[in-house]
Amino acid sequence: MMDLISQITVSGLMFWFLAAVTIVGGLGVALSQNILYSGFCLMITLIGVAGLYLFLGADFVGAVQLIVYIGGILVVILFSVLLTKRIGVDKTTSSWMNRGVSVLGCLALLGMLLFSVTKATWRVTETVSTPTTARIGDGLLREYLFPFELISVVLLMSLVGAMVLARRAAKDNSGQQQDSIERLQ
Amino acid sequence: MNIGIEHYLIVSSFLFVIGMYTVATRRHAVAILMGVELLLNSASINFVAFSHFVEGGISGYVFSLFIIVLAAAEAAVALAIVLSLFRNTNTVDVTESVTLQG
Amino acid sequence: MSADALYTVAIPKLVELDNLWLIVLFPFLGAVINGLLGRQLQAKFGKSIIHYIAIGMMLCSFAVAIIAFAQILTADDIAIVSQAFPMIDIGWLSVNFALYFDPLSVVLALIITGIGTLIHVYSTGYMKDDPAYWRFFCYLNLFIFSMLLLVLGDSFVLMFFGWEGVGLCSYLLIGFWYKDMKKATAGFKAFVVNRIGDFAFITGLFFLFWGLGGHWNQNNNYDVHSNRSYEAIPVASDATSVDRLTSQDNKELVSQMPSVVFRDIEKQMTLSVRSAETGAIQKPFADALTEQTVGGIPLVFLICFLFFLGACGKSAQIPLYVWLPDAMAGPTPVSALIHAATMVTAGIYMIVRLNFLFVLSPGVMTVIALVGACTALFAATIGMVQHDLKKVLAYSTISQLGFMFLGVGVGAWWAAVFHLLTHACFKACLFLGAGSVIHSMGFLKSHDKSDDTEDNSIQTEPTHASVEEKPSPTDPQDMRNMGGLGVIMSHTRRTYLIACLAIAGFPVAAGFYSKDEILWKAMSNGQTFIPGWILWSIGFVAAGCTSFYMFRSYYMVFYGAPPSEQCQKHAHESPRSMIHVLWVLAGASIVTAVLGLPHLITGVDAIFAQWLAPMTAPFVSTTGVASAAWLEGILIVASIGIAVIGWLIAKHFYHSTHASMEKRQQWYQQFRLVHHTLYNKYWIDELYQMTWVRGFKSLSHGVATVDKFVVGLVINGGSKKLGQAFHKFAQVLRLHQTGYVNNYAYGIAIGTVVLVLVAQAWF
Is the pLDDT assigned to residue C229 strictly greater than 60? Predict the structure, then answer.
């Protein structure tokens, strides 16, 4: 009995810890004045979310979250920070007025969400966690085959689009460089 | 105590609101992007939680995977746009690039 | 097991041999090595390293083919399957990278690797002076790899892969000298025309799997999940159901699973099931195809017709033959290997491989036979007046392919494949002989660097070459520049003569037996909707033309006017590597006759017929005429007769001396119109240019005009008022657009909240 209780407690503590990590990270993203710190806070949040996934038995999604989100997307975001901005020079948040209105709006939203979440009755079927990777792989090639192909096309198109945007910028830049060289001469 | 679905939904609600606040108040384009990531993550938590608790299937997992893919696409395009913006206006403050103002 | 009695026809017994898939690995390796490292290797070690690699790989591949052949020859098992690795595994469908050796495919593998090796050897002489030596051998090896996959692949997936692969290699090799715009264009034309055929082929595949799709898995009696296959036993067997499960003999598993493997589909198509209740015999899969219709057309007709269109593209039949004559722009060894011996026969192979499908549709078989016969005659008549040596051979190839299609169309499977085999030998010999001549005439070109190959028909302005047009003095392929070369190039002359005898249909060589068997089957079959004697007569006339144009080219090149001084000074016999290959091929054109000696002479069925019998479905019904030996005898004599007549006419006009020149001129004048038509290839290229190419262009112009005037008018004129109204409205609306991203985010958030609140209040 003691054993059982302690187990539950451990898993509960684990959840609260992960939830805290996630939310504190999120607050860091929202409130930090330095954009680079925001980025690192985002990483903490993402790790917390990955932990929640694992806690929910979604091993594959958690692993993808770690690899793709933190390994890929976050790095891209930090890149864009470092490529565009001298760190900590510009003021990164908006006026008091704006923030006040935002806080009010967001609190209203939060209240509404919490109200509906707690009020609703969830028909929960407690499931035993089984490894999901094989099932997801199977599903992606059967009932989700079309969305899967579609999302591949979307990803491809957006990457090509990103490349085109960046390329045009690069060309402009080289033109500018040439201009400046000509001006120097 | 037992961790139920409400707990996850509450966590995701908090995350969502924080993300919303980030999008609404930050002036740095990349910070807004981070806020969007928070929003996406909170939705993703919901999907996974529903998939775990309510339904036996894998739809939720697959949806959260699709969300991650979309986030990747979004980040790539956003980076390109931010770079483009920075080259053209020499700033990433979204309150300064208001040429679309009516 | 259920009480249903299930039957299936005899299917070759199958053994598995693991290592035979190496046959495709060797040429692939050769292509990879020469493709990636060839330039460096050639620079460092000279050209010989390149062909050592390429020919070494080819020899290994040929050795594997011989091993497979020996296995099939000696063992009882008449088919070998060699699994390499699984490729696709989704749900119930699994596709393996597996090669299938049966009597049909092993013969083709022997042709491809055997003649391929010879042509590699020949190319070492022919391409000696080309700087891109490594690229040439890389492409050749890549071609062999694709062609082997096409022929040996045991499923539609691999076949289609090879099918596209050979198309690619053909394109690369036709445009091998890509700096010459005309040659690059010829490659382009081949590629585009082939696309039409390939599109038909893949559409046919989709229809086939769509048609079968409903019947896979759908089994009333069996739980497909737990018991995916069931046994089918021969009718005669009276074994108990327990025996059926344990006994290994007479047991053939017919899978009802989705499959892309030929032998699985063949089994499914030939499967008959006796219903336990009614006792009626059904063919669940074959019926599925014959009974369904698409837009009123029976599905099986549609599928087979689309496959046949695909074959038309690859094998250059009417109406998609136009690319092959232009394909002669490639190096001559390529013409011999790809555009005569192997790739262009892929269509024949495909139809013979799928014979179990084609026999279900006599309509398509009739179309095939008719198109084949017409192509044979059509191309032969064009070939009679061409001056470019390689063009003559190109039309000859189209014509011979027409014969093969005729054979396939009347269900003479073995005769068609046998003609494929003999044609591969003698046509390769002819092309390589022509290559030897062109190689030796190459000095003409060195006098004038300007480009002067025969006009390509792609160009927009069709040239109306007249009969009297003088030959370009710098064209090494124009037969009017040759003449009298027999003295100088005696080896080439003799091998060319042997190949001529083979193709013209003299009974000393193999071509006679294969062509005659096709003609006889065309006459005697009772299945096609067109009377046999019509098909026979078209083929018969085409055979006469064949004899004429072959000997015409022979006399124009090697006899006729004595060689000019230039010729005597510059022309030379080709290097030994080329001569040896010519002799081997000439020998093969004679020796292969043994395989096809007809029943009439030996009293037993031809060896080759027995060889292929196990894997071809019977199509020819024995009508009264089929058993008439006297008729067959008469037809054979007639065939020899017309070959001799063709030869004599050619000799009369082209053998030598001034007199025959004058006779020729008179002849030309007399039949000016006919000659003109034939020389300009019936203006088919121009017709396509006028109809398709120009049609598409004017359609695009029309659409552009409509867009410019009609759409433009409506948008610009009529909507001006509307536009002003919107403008006013927008003046007000634009105040909402602050340009601040955050504000837009607010909008979204507040909108969501309001929406939820409204929903909450409403419901």
Answer: no
Confidence of residue A176 (pLDDT cuts 50, 70, 90): low
Give yes or no for C91 touching A (CB within 8 A).
yes
For C717-753, how does the pLDDT look when each residue is reduced to its tens digit (9 = 90+)? 667 777 888 888 888 887 777 777 777 777 887 888 8
Please list the residues that pair with C294 across neighbouring strands.
Answer: C297
Query: Which ipTM was obtained for this model?
Result: 0.89
What b/e string do you get for C164-189 counting C-beta neighbours within 10 Å, with b at 16 or more? Answer: bbbbebbbbbbbbeeeeebbbbbbbb
Chain B nearest CA to C739, separation (Å)? 4
Candidate from A105, A112, A142 with C-beta closest to C746 = A105
What residue type is C311 in one-letter code? A
Q: What is the DSSP string of C643-693?
A: HHHHHHHHHHHHSSHHHHHHHHHHHHHHTHHHHHHHHTGGGHHHHHIIIII
Rounded to the nearest angstrom, the gap between the alpha carbon of residue C133 and the centroid of all alpha carbons in its chain is: 26
Average pLDDT, chain A: 80
**DSSP-based three-state secondary structure for C411:** coil
The Cα–Cα gap between A76 and A69 comes to 10
Task: State how far the Cα of A78 lies from the Cα of A166, in Å rounded to an integer.
Answer: 16
Q: Is A102 on the interface with C (CB under 8 A)?
A: yes
pLDDT per position as a tens digit, C69-102: 888 888 766 788 888 888 887 767 788 888 888 8
On chain C, the residues whose CB falls within 8 A of the CB of A94 are 742
Domain total in chain A: 3
CB spacing of B58 vs A91 below 8 angstroms = no
Domain that includes residue A145, residue range:
131-185
| Cα-Cα-Cα-Cα dihedral sign, residues C14, C15, C21, C23 | negative
Quote the number of domains for chain B.
1
Same domain, A81 and A10: yes
CA C310 to each of CA B40, C149, C181, C351: distance values in angstroms, whole numbers, following the listed order: 49, 17, 28, 10
Mean pLDDT rounded to a whole number for chain C = 79
Interchain CB distance below 8 Å, C746 and B95: no
Is the CB of B32 less than 8 angstroms away from the CB of C741? yes
Structure tokens at A116: 């509906």
**Angstrom distance (rounded) from CA C50 to CA C41:** 7
Alpha carbon distance C338, C111 (integer Å)? 12
Encode pLDDT of C312-368 as tens digits.
999 988 888 888 888 888 888 898 888 888 889 999 999 999 988 888 888 899 999
Cβ burial B7-22 (10 Å sphere, 16+ → b, else e): bbbbbbbbbbbbbbbb
Residues of B whose CB is below 8 A from C739? 97-102
Give, in order, the Cα–Cα distances in Å from C162 to each of C154, C196, C285, C350, C637.
11, 17, 27, 12, 41
- The per-residue pLDDT for range C432-450, each reduced to its tens digit, is 999 888 888 877 766 544 4
Chains that touch C (3 or more CB pairs under 8 A): A, B
Between CA C414 and CA C425 the distance in angstroms is 17
Give dist(CA C379, CA C322) in Å, integer.
10
**Cβ-based neighbours of A169, under 8 Å, separated by 6 or more:** B80, B83, B84, B87
Residue A94 structure tokens: 């908006």
Q: How many CA atoms lie within 13 A of C460 on its CB side?
A: 3
Specify the DSSP element, H or E, that contains A114: helix A96-119
Instruction: Map C702-762 to HEC letters.
Output: HHHHHHHHHHHHHHHHHCHHHHHHHHHHHHHHHHHCCCCHHHHHHHHHHHHHHHHHHHHHH
Where in the sequence is the domain holding B42, given as residue range(s)?
5-89
Read off the CATH number of the domain in which B33 is found: 1.10.287.3510
Query: Which residues does residue C79 pair with via DSSP β-bridges, in sequence order?
Result: C14
Same domain as A99, residue A28? no
CATH of the domain at A26: 1.20.120.1200
